[in-house]
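Service request form, structural biology core

Requester: graduate student, group of Dr. S.
Request type: structure prediction, single chain
Budget code: on file
Notes: please return the result as structure tokens.

Sequence provided:
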Amino acid sequence: MAENEARDIGVEVTPPKESCDDDNCPFHGTLSVRGRVMRGEVESTQMEKSVVVRKDHFNYIPKYERYEKRKSHYPSHLPPCIDVEKGDEVKIMECSPISKSISYVIIEKGEKI
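Core staff response, request fulfilled:
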């Protein structure tokens, strides 16, 4: 494999242009991805190599026949080859556990929300 060539992870996403030497990168390392693919907004970038992604959703309440807003937080691994900031929309995918709370990895960056 060439230096800048990213491996196929099995999902139709645009691979990053930069390369990295992170072992937990799905494109340039050995981390395999599987399971759920979700979109969310980056809420915090204070950790090293990790971010917190917020996913908003609606929950139906039958008694009032209305929806309520809810949100979920997903701590995710951030490979060095993907550059994100707070407020960016990202696509995350489930992977094997990297730490106690991190079981997701960022696979694609979208636009700023």
